[in-house]
Request: fold
Amino acid sequence: MTAPDPKLAWQSHNILGRAAADGRLFEEAKDHFRAGAEAAHEADLPRMEWDQRTNLTWCLTELGDYAGALHEIDIAERIARELDDLYCIAKSLIDGGNAEIGTG
Reply:
């Protein structure tokens, strides 16, 4: 048996994570986004890893896991800066701010 293709794994987790998050099933969605981020990292797809980590940050924030959200957005912001993508940097900063608000 061959190992699953990381790009296919990323795409699958992305679809399942978005569907779960749209239904506000954040616990389920976070697992898909985490697995999607790991698969994107393995496939050397930094923009997709960034996307999965920002989605994971949203789920963790909604679940009240602010420390986890801040950890993930730190990774996402680093990726955004490596990509030198102003949209990704701005979204990372906004998502980080939302997680910070939750800490009180």
About this structure: The chain is about 85% helix and 0% strand. The mean pLDDT is 94.
